[in-house]
Design a protein that fits this description.
Largest sheet: 6 strands, mixed
Bound molecules: manganese (II) ion
Distance between the termini: 54 Å
Shape: globular
Amino acid sequence: MAEVLIINEEEKRLIQNAYRDLLKSIKSELNEEDRMNIRKAYEMAVQAHSEQRRKSGEPYILHPIAVAKICADEIGLGPTAIICALLHDVVEDTEISLEDIQKQFGERIAKIVDGLTKLDSAYNAESPQAENFRKVLGTLVEDVRVVLIKMADRLHNMRTLGSMPRHKQLKIAAETSYVYAPLAHRLGLYNIKTEYLDLCMKITDPENYQEIAQKLSETKRSREEYIKEFIAPLKDNLDDIGAHYEIFGRPKSIYSIWNKIRTKRVPFEEIYDLFAVRIVVDVTPEKEKLVCWQVYSIVTDVHTPIPERLKDWITTPKSNGYESLHTTVIGPKGRYVEVQIRSNRMDEIAERGYAAHWKYKGLSRHPDVYERWLDSVREILEDPNSDAVEFLGDFKSNNLFNEEVFVYTPKGDMRILPKGATALDFAFHIHTDVGYYCSAIKVNNKMVPMGYKLRNGDQVQITTNKNQKPSEDWIKMVATGKARSKIRSAMKEERRRKGEIGREALERKLGNLKVDFDRSVEQLVSQYEFPSHADLYYAIAMGELTIPEIFKTAKVDFDKDGQRHLSFVEEEKPAPVEEKPRRERKPKFTGKPRLLINGEPAEQFNYTFATCCNPVQGDDIFAYLTANAGLKIHRATCPNATNLMAHYGYRVMKAEWITTADTTFVAALKITGIDDGPGVIERLTHKISTMLGLNIRSFNIEGNEGYYEGRISLLVRNTDQLNMAIRALQNLSNVSTVVRID
Ligand code: MN
């Protein structure tokens, strides 16, 4: 039976109040026309959604009103965006068409609403996440407001996720942490990003979320006392500045606290920076830099600063527009306290991001920070060589989300690259050709390997040589999407060029046999399972697959109509191996550590340990139900984890270790150091096998210009043993770094 959808009197009042509330939250000046158009959009939306309700049962129209309010209140958007937010679901869900909107509200608004509708249908389709993400960014470069409104839409949906079934909650949460949170961060929408991640955690990890929330509220009072104690001795001097200011403690988000507990492996009680102290001064833009440093000086006169924690994002703002002065000082009782110093204007940008930034455009000393980023997004979008998955990888791993490093050309021009960028990235950053022909790199007048990680202040000088060209291993020496995609296309081109010989040879042979070329190539590609034609040609050219080999199994056959074509002789299949008698096989469960999956003993499930992250007893783990290989156990920090959750969150199950069984796990370490002559390997293996008594499963080491890099697989019983091995290796004099790898 259809639900009765008539909106009652009480609901009508609710809707009108929500609308009135929305109008009050609009901060920009509204002229008569704006006011009229907002009213018109509201009435159109009320009418269009009048027969719909949300999962929770409330009238649907409350959703677009709430989204519009978030746009106004929390992102600081103006009337155009508010109109679009009110209309954001009408084209998709109701009778109203895009033409109707264009007639009533004009081209601009129709375009944005269209973008929002397309974005929605992109997500409803069964297309892969990576492709969706590309679409999101495609709309972003057209009009950033589309994505900003989408952010508000997603935020309201996350806030009201309670009435959705569990598997949908997990999927939406995964998508949010995978796509929306990093994008919000990049757009400078810090508050929204923080709330996204908190809401995600509330869904994916409710126990830890509740536990931290509760501990935060239990310790609130003592924290407030502490903040008072911290602030009190500053007040007199701050009053002397003669500018209005605010000083307060700001709690960190539950998600960020949890992250710290997880990565640093310390209990809640030992985390002291549960809050930061923020000082916001109300001064004119001309005086803000001076006054902020004055405040810094007052704070550090009282509380001892830790110099390496000073971050000056006022002189050089972050690429998302963030400006602030951060420092960490030693407060009362010897605790570290982070202090953030900024002006009102900077605070507004930091809290509300791009839109707020817009409003001040022209006033900021760095008006182009956004444009530069949007340009690099455009550049990646336009690269025809990157497929969607590579694109997403590039986008996530590099540059576009991360912070940056400042380096100089030999002439002293400053260049900004993403943090983690290498010397070779710098070469590609200067010009594609400089990258292609790069043959040697000096940093601060010393030769460095191409994969050298840039540091702030480095001066980089590139030498080129026309005979040089990119090779496969260059990919590993760069971190930016630009360099990676340029190298990849050079490699593809090189492969294609080399494959030409293979193609010609095959063409001759097929010509002699008088069979159709295209059809035969198609057959060969599928027979030998090559990803593409180019790969077939390349394999032939390189002798990996020879023509005589092909024609051992391929022969000419005739169609019914006498056409010649290739057919393949069935290779004799080896007889199925008979199952060995049970007693010869390994007993089924020995060697497997004991686990609980979703709280139940794991023996009843068919599970294996994922080889992408090699969990070791003691690691945080989860179980993932694969399509055809049973359950795989991954580390919670596995690089594939978010990806899996975003695609198939509902397949993820809780897993935990129960006993310290006497079994071993494979763990891989990467070791780098100085190659100080023969015997490096002996010293390392001696330490591991003789001194620590651990078994080495594999070991390989590569030396290069006095550096070496080794990968070593060890058999360990648990994380304690592994950490012991890491510490012991770190203490060797010829070892510089030891890290666990996946
Ligand atoms: Mn919506």
